[in-house]
Write a structure and sequence with these properties.
The protein has about 375 residues and is of the alpha+beta class. The protein has eight helices and 20 strands. The radius of gyration is 22 Å and the shape is globular.
Length: about 375
Amino acid sequence: MKQETQVALTKRIFKLLEVRTSELAPDPYLNPVSSYTDPDQFVEEHQRLFLEHPQVFTLSCRIPNIGDYVSHDLNGVPIVVIRDEEGHARAFLNVCRHRGARLVEGCGKTGRNGLTCPYHSWTYDLQGRLRAMVPPFGFEGLAKEDHGLIALPCVEKDGLIWIRPTIGQMADPDDYLQGLGPEIGSYGFGNYFHFETRMLSRSINWKMVIDTFLETWHVSTLHKETVAPIFIPNASNVFDAFGEHGRMLIPRRTIVSQKDEPEEKWDLLKNSAIIYLIFPHTLLNWQGDHLEIWRPFPGDRVDHVKIEVSFYVPEDPITESAQRYWRKNMDLLMQTVNEEDFPICDNIQKGASSGAQQHFTYGRNEPALGHYHRFLARALGQSAID
C-alpha cells in the first residue's frame, strides 16, 4: 500500500476517533432472511457466483516450482492448478480423459513428469497434453491431441492465481477488481510462504462466514477475552467500496502512538487489520504481519458450508521459534472465529428458520454488510443497487 494511501486512511481513523463514531452508510439495509434459508436461491448462488465468476484459487507461492500443484473440488468442480515447464500457472479439470478418474488429490509435486492417472496410468504433460495411453495397442485410432485435459481460464497476477471454474471467458483481474488490484499487488503475496490450511464445516449458510468479518461492533462483547484487547472495534472502522469489492480497516490500539510520529513514518499496515472483500466469496485478511484467506463454499444444503482457511507468512517458518509464533497466531484465529463467532452463527441459522422475522437489519454503522448484500442481490437479479 502506498504511503500516501496509508496516511490518508490513518487520518480518517484519527478523525473518527476524535468524534467517537464509525463511518456510516446512507441508510440501514434490510436483508431478507430467506437469503439464508431458500433452497432455490442456494442453487442459483452456486451457479451464478461459484461457477461463473472469477475466483482467487490460491497464491503463487503454493506452486513455486515446475510441477507443483494444488487441487480441490470445493465448488463442486474438480480442479487442479499446476506450474508448467515455462513457469506458467495452468488450470485443468482434474479428470482423466480415459475413465474419468481424479488425477491428483490435495497439493504436491510432480516435477517435470506431468500427471499420471492412478487408475490406468494415462499420462499428461504439464500443459495438459496427453502423452501416453495405456496400453497403447488398446486405443489405436484415437488421436492423443483430442484427449488432452480440459483447460480452464487461469490468470496469475501479483501473486494471486485466478481461475474460472467452468469453460468460458474470464475477466482480467485488474479490470475485475475495479481499482483495488495495484494495492493488493503491493503486498508481494506471491513471495509469502504457506503455513497451514484448515478445512472447517459448519451448519450455517455460506454467506454467514462473510458476514462475520464485515462488521466489528460485536468484538467488544463476543471477543472480550481474545481480540478485543488488540483492536479498537467500534469507533473508527473505515470502509471503501471498489465496485462490488471492498476494503475495511480495523485499527489496532497501537495506532494511537502514530500521532506522535511524522506522517512519513506512519505505518497503517503494522497497526491495523485490513479486510479485502473480493466478490463473491473471498476474504484476504491482512493481520499486521501475515495474511489469512477465508473462502466459504456452499455445502450440500442451504444450511451447510465448507470453509477453507489458509495462513500465509512473510518468511519461511523453518525455525522452532517461528513455528511457535505462527502456531499461536493460528490458534488465536481459530479460538476467535471457530469457537466464538461461528457458534453464534449456528444459533442465527436456526433462528432464520423459525419465522421470527423477515429481514436481518444492518445499521448505518455496518456499511460493508449493506454493500456486500446489495451486490449479491444484483448478481442474482433480485434488485438494483440502491
